[in-house]
Structure formats: structure tokens, C-alpha cells
Amino acid sequence: MKPPVSVVDVIPQNINAAAELAAEIKKIQESQVKISQWQQRGMKAEISWEESRSVLFEWEVCRHAVPVEDTKCFKCRIEASIKCEDCHRLFCYHCDMKKHFLNPFHDRFSWASGYYEALPPTVTVDLNGTFTDWRRYDLYLPIFECQECGYSLPADAKMLYDGGYFCSSARKSNTFFSTKLLNNWHFLKRNSPG
User: Fold this and answer.
1) pTM (global) more than 0.85
2) Residue 169 and residue 182: Cα distance in Å, rounded?
3) How many CB atoms lie within 10 A of CB 96?
4) Residues 6+ apart with CB under 8 A from 132
5) What are phi and psi of 145, to 5 degrees?
6) CA distances from 152 to 113, 130, 142, 158 (A)
7) What is the pLDDT of residue 46?
8) Sequence-separated (6 or more) residues with CB below 8 Å from residue 39
9) DSSP code, position 79
10) CA 136 to CA 193: how far, in whole Å?
């Protein structure tokens, strides 16, 4: 037969269990405070983005909107007719020819028809909406020249590659591709079925 258990024998066991339970509850509460602080920061960030979303959307729409009348060329201040996405500038057709004759790979657009139209490298547009063809475009490799000492360094394939262009052939360098185009093609090829 078992001896009867007294209250004095049970209390130390219950106190230890209660202390362990209190410590565990404290740990749970502390972890919940950290989670709620994290959630609170996330909610504040989401509210902040929600408040600025309409402004950002308006900016993006304005960036793609056709310019209003009397938009000036950034260089000569006469009326512009061409937008260059790479230069982030508006050009009149004279300044466009000067700038982009040597930069044929820039993404340029005209809004003569009331909406943006992409321009080929050999075409410019005047204020009347007349497309002017520059004739066949022959790409000449640049020559870098020091103004002080006269030292000149002709560009090679490595320099063009460093500048973001890639030769179409290892033997002849008469066609160049933008490396952005090649990266986009690679992405589409890998991620599109068929």
C-alpha cells in the first residue's frame, strides 16, 4: 500500500512546472511581439506604397505620353520632333541627325502622327512629319584621339563589346547587335515554349 501523499510533497513539483510554463509563455509572448513588429513594419511599407502608387502611375503615363505643342529641343531650343530613349532628350531633326548619325543604335521615336512611332537608324522626322532617309548607313569604327598630344587609338571589337555592342561575325565586323537585344532574345528563348 502506498503512503498517502501530502500537500507539502506536491507543491514543489507544481511550482517547478508552473515556473517552466511561465518561462515558456514568456518566450511565446516575446516571439509574438517580434512578429507583430515585423508585420507592423510591413503594413506601414504597404500603406506607404499604396499612397504613392497613384503618383508613380501618373509619372509613368506622363513619361509615355506624346509631348504637348511647343516642346523644345534640349540643345538648340527650336521645336522638337524626336524623342530618344537612350539620351533621355527631345531633339529637333537637325540636332537628331548630328547626334544620332554616330549613335545608330539609340531607340528614337517620332510623334508626328499623334502617337509614338519607332524610327529606324537611317531616318529622321521634321516638324511637318516628313520622314527623311539618310541613305544607306555605313558604320565606321570610332577612333579615339587625344586633343593634347594627338595620340589616336582605333576602336576594336573588345572596345565595342565593352560599350554594349556585339559583332555578328568573327571575321567581318560590318553588323553589330546591342547586347541588350541578345540578352532579351536569350531570355525569351529560354522561357517561351516553342
Assistant:
1) no
2) 14
3) 29
4) 93, 123, 124, 125, 126
5) -130, 135
6) 44, 39, 10, 17
7) 83
8) none
9) B
10) 37
Cell reading at 192: 517561351
The 10s digit of each residue's pLDDT in 115-127 is 888 888 778 777 6
Cell triple for 141:
569604327
Owner of C-alpha cell 572596345:
159
Give dist(CA 90, CA 80) in Å, integer: 6
| Per-residue pLDDT tens digits for 29-82 | 676 655 567 777 887 888 888 888 888 888 888 877 888 777 888 888 888 888
Cα 116 from chain centroid (whole Å): 20
Residues 6+ apart with CB under 8 A from 83: 67, 89, 90, 91, 108, 109, 110, 111, 116
For residue range 166-186, list pLDDT tens digits in order.
777 777 666 777 878 888 888
DSSP state of 147: T
DSSP states of 109-146 as a string? EE-TTSS-EEE-TTEEE-TT--EEE--SPPP---EEE-
User: Starting at the edge strand that comes first in sequence, how are the strands of the sheet with 89-91 ordered?
Assistant: 89-91, 82-84, 108-110, 117-119
**Residue among 146, 147, 169 nearest 157 (CA):** 169
Cα(194)–Cα(181) distance, integer angstroms: 19
Nearest to 118 by CA among 74, 75, 84: 84
**Is the distance from CB of 132 to CB of 123 less than 8 angstroms?**
yes
